Amino acid sequence: MRLVTFVNLVPALGAAALLLSASPATADVLTFATFTSISPIKNIRFVNSGTSPSRVDDAQIFTTSTATADSAGATKVYFSFLQTGLSKFINNVVADYTLTAAVAKGDTASVAVGYVIQPIVTGTMTFKSTTPITLDSPYFAPTTFAAGANLLTVTFSTGMIGSKNGSTSTLSGSTEGGSVVEFTSDFLDFDEVSNADLSTTFSAMSTLLQIASTSASGNNSVSSFRATAGGQFSSDPAPMVVGIVPEPVSWVMMITGFTMLGIAIRKRARMVQLAL
Which residues pair with 131 in a beta bridge? Predict the structure, then answer.
């Protein structure tokens, strides 16, 4: 499956303009998937790495399995597809959500027009089914995806922004804006997608959004916090549902339809010739 990849060349203040704009005005971007936390527990951990010379990054972001865990782990969320043909079967299904991302060493945050901007955050988030999912339709043979199927995986390199001293921040970006946003899924085909968007909100933050200055043993990246995650994913055009083999009766109906169309076209052409 071909992935849409763009290199992020947006500097800090350029990222502010990108992140303050939801999507390019000329794009016809459609949301195809959403997720929400099952409960208000905090399932995101942002850890400022401090000032140690041996550190490899300025900060790490990851999901946790509990509200107090300090190590990365999967958390349960509700996941939904909005695509016709999928929304009936995958609507608020329980999924295992994992997020692993980092702020590279030296990619310091900045403040502009009252917003804290963390310019480059790079990582991956994945949503996997916790139970088998069967897609069924009058037009297609039933297809069952086993538990653990990839509902959606997002690879990204984008930015994070939020109001200074606020309790919410947003990890967002668009390939048309210069971010890297790549989608893969067992259920959707992204081959024709030319613009991919993500927007993940970290709400109810345990500490207000601010920059950890070097005088406070920080590295000018965002200060550590815990939060609750939710978000949505969009693209232009909308992705296609993966090919599901039609039932034999559907093949017969389609072949019959094409045959009748061919007969009608030949009959019309003959009538035109007789009229001449």
Answer: none
Measured in degrees and rounded to the nearest 5, phi and psi for residue 151 equal: -65, -50
- The two three-digit tokens of residue 211, written as one number: 């920059």
Exposure string over 3-32, b if 16+ CB within 10 A, otherwise e = ebebebebebebbbebbeeebbeebebeeb
Report the half-sphere exposure of 103 (CA within 13 A, side-chain side).
27
- Within 10 A of 59 (CB to CB), how many other CB atoms are there? 27
| 200 vs 33: CA distance, rounded Å | 12
113-153 pLDDT, tens digit each:
999 999 999 999 999 999 999 998 776 678 899 999 999 99
Whether residue 108 contacts residue 210, with contact meaning beta carbons closer than 8 Å, is answered with no
Question: What would the pLDDT profile of 77-116 be if each residue is shown by its tens digit?
Answer: 999 999 888 999 999 999 999 999 999 999 999 999 999 9
DSSP letter for each residue of 23-77 = S-TT---EEEEEEEESSSS--EEEEE--S-TT-SEEEEEEE-SSSS--S---EEE
Is there a contact between 213 and 220 (Cβ–Cβ < 8 Å)?
yes
Computed over every residue of the chain, the mean pLDDT equals: 84
Give the pLDDT confidence of 3-57 residue by residue, as tens digits.
333 333 333 344 444 444 444 444 588 999 999 999 888 999 999 999 988 999 9
Burial classification of residue 42, based on how many CB atoms lie within 10 Å of its CB (0-12 exposed, 13-18 middle, 19 or more buried): buried
Query: Are the C-beta atoms of 103 and 75 separated by less than 8 Å?
Result: no
Q: What is the pTM of this model?
A: 0.81
